[in-house]
Amino acid sequence: MSTTGSDMAPAFDDLVALQRTVDDAHHRLQQLSDVYGRSSVNAWSEEQRAAWHAARNAWVEDVAVSRR
Q1: What DSSP designation does 40 have?
Q2: Gap between the terminal Cα atoms of the chain
Q3: What was the pLDDT predicted at 53?
Q4: Over the range 34-57, which residues count as b (16 or more CB within 10 Å of their CB) and which as e?
Q5: What does each of the 68 residues of the chain score in pLDDT, given as a tens digit?
Q6: Is residue 8 exposed (0-12), middle (13-18) or buried (19+ Cβ within 10 Å)?
Q7: Contact residues for 60 (Cβ-Cβ < 8 A; gap 6+)
Q8: H/E stretch holding 44
Q9: Count H helices, E strands: the chain?
Q10: Bridge partners, residue 3, by sequence
């Protein structure tokens, strides 16, 4: 991450890039939810469950990185 000045604050472009990463991960999670339906209503296969959890974990990790 680039910085501005000596205060090591993230540059605006870095913040925009982080937000895009978070938004993309959230969009992927939403896509899977839309395709698979609700897990409590539609029985998900193990593959669907793993894909959804991987997408959710990626989103959570991206949010955590964006808040550092």
Answers
A1: T
A2: 11
A3: 93
A4: eebeeeeeeebeeebeebbeebbe
A5: 554 454 566 788 888 988 999 999 999 999 998 999 887 677 889 999 999 999 999 999 988 887 77
A6: exposed
A7: none
A8: none
A9: 2, 2
A10: 10
